Amino acid sequence: MSLSIRNQIPGTVTSVTPGEAMATVKVRLDGGQNVTAAITADAVKDLGLTEGSAVRALVKATEVALATGPVDGLSIRNRLPGTVREVSTGAAMASVRVSVDGGELTSAITKDAATDLALAPGSAVTVLFKSTEVSLATG
């Protein structure tokens, strides 16, 4: 199956913590970084997720935020250090490609945000996305 989601990073499930309706799934990305996904308990069962399962973590570019300074006091679980590879700006929006260990992520942010953060190739950033915005795929 092909998907329009640009951010598809391979990894391995390291733990599944079930709840009544939702579960948290921790994934070690191929680059060694960790991502947490909050998905339904039914999805865990339907995908057959257990420790050691190979998955792809999927995150829409519009759900990826960027920070150029310290990131403290946030509930956002997923924080990956990276380096800006490319910034493409249009009239209103910017697409920012960021290299992280083991892959690349794209963030769709406003042109004003890209300008305010002075994003350019080589800029150090932290990629941020909520665990509830991570989908998991197998196969």
Question: Could you give a short description of this structure?
Answer:
The protein has 139 residues and is mainly β. It has a five-stranded antiparallel sheet. A five-stranded antiparallel sheet has the order 5-9-6-7-8.
Model regions low in confidence, pLDDT < 50 over at least 5 residues: none
Largest beta sheet: strand ordering? 3-2-1-4-10
Output the radius of gyration: 15 Å
**Number of H/I helices:** 2
Q: Per DSSP, what share of the residues sits in E-state strands of 2 or more residues?
A: over 45%
Distance between the termini: 10 Å
SSE order, as H and E? EEEHEEEEEHEE
What's the story with the biggest beta sheet? 5 strands, antiparallel
Task: Look at the helices and sheets and give the structural class.
Answer: mainly beta
| Helix proportion | under 10%
Global outline? elongated
Record field, number of beta strands:
10
Mean pLDDT: 96
Structural notes for this entry:
It is elongated and about 45 Å long. Strand 1 (7-18) and strand 2 form a beta hairpin. The chain contains two helices and ten strands. The protein is mainly beta. The protein has helices at 41-47, 111-116, and strands at 7-18, 22-29, 34-40, 54-59, 65-67, 78-89, 93-100, 103-110, 124-129, 135-137. The relative contact order is 0.26.
